[in-house]
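Work Package 4 report. The design task specified in the project plan requires that, given a folded chain encoded as structure tokens, an amino acid be chosen for each position. We show below one input record used in the internal validation round.
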């Protein structure tokens, strides 16, 4: 059986930065499942499908193929053969992903693909439902969180660095909204698995969090 690490937590907790570093240290694959939900969301946006139209979204799922590959150690996401890595990191796509990931057809499709990858490959996978639903047998499970204020500030600085105009209070509001959506949906809501280790990164550096996860792996 392959060695699997599951990392779950709310938006902006630093999951991808940390999972990427852990993968590097362990020479294993990093799978960002949020990117897969984002790729599907991009398809729905392009088709002009509304997030509340479950029927249209479920039907559209049959016309979508999401695949992953790696280029220079970076995960690349393909939507029906098109590399969409550069198109899925916008707020619009993130919000659409959060809203459309509530549907059973969307989740089934990606969950199946994620389990398939984890069966044969040593990997660290991050998302919202990895420890609770996708990989309940993962050898190491982490629930990574941070306060809304900390996550908001990190996002604010990130956007400022990119030269994008933003407002801290609005960012915090969006984060609260996304948490609510991800934690309160019916199917596979975001929550800490019973056997997951809780790490609150509010007052920790990236290196400290990475070291804590590596220590869990060694144990
Ligand atoms: O991690 P992210 O912000 O890229 O994820 C975008 C959205 O996708 C998130 O708000 C909820 C959804 N998602 C999910 O439902 N399950 C996952 N395993 C990963 C992401």
């Amino acid at each position: 059986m392959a060695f699997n690490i599951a990392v779950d937590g709310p938006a902006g907790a630093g999951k991808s930065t940390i999972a990427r570093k852990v993968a590097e240290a362990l020479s294993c694959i990093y799978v960002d499942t949020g990117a897969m939900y984002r790729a599907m969301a991009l398809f729905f946006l392009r088709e002009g499908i509304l997030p509340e139209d479950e029927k249209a979204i479920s039907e559209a799922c049959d016309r979508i193929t999401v695949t992953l590959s790696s280029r220079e150690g970076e995960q690349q996401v393909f939507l029906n053969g098109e590399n969409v890595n550069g198109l899925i990191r916008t707020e619009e796509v993130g919000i659409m992903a959060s809203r459309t990931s509530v549907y059973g057809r969307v989740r089934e499709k990606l969950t199946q693909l994620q389990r398939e990858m984890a069966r044969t490959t040593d990997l660290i996978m991050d998302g919202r439902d990895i420890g609770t639903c996708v990989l309940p047998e993962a050898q190491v499970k982490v629930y990574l969180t941070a306060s809304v204020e900390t996550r908001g500030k990190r996002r604010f600085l990130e956007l400022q660095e990119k030269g994008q105009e933003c407002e801290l209070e609005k960012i915090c509001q969006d984060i609260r909204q996304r948490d609510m959506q991800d934690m309160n949906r019916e199917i596979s809501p975001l929550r800490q698995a019973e056997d997951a280790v809780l790490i609150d990164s509010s007052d920790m550096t990236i290196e400290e969090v990475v070291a804590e996860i590596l220590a869990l792996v060694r144990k």
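The beta strands are 4-8, 29-32, 66-71, 74-79, 82-83, 123-127, 140-145, 197-200. Validation will be extended to a larger panel in the next phase.
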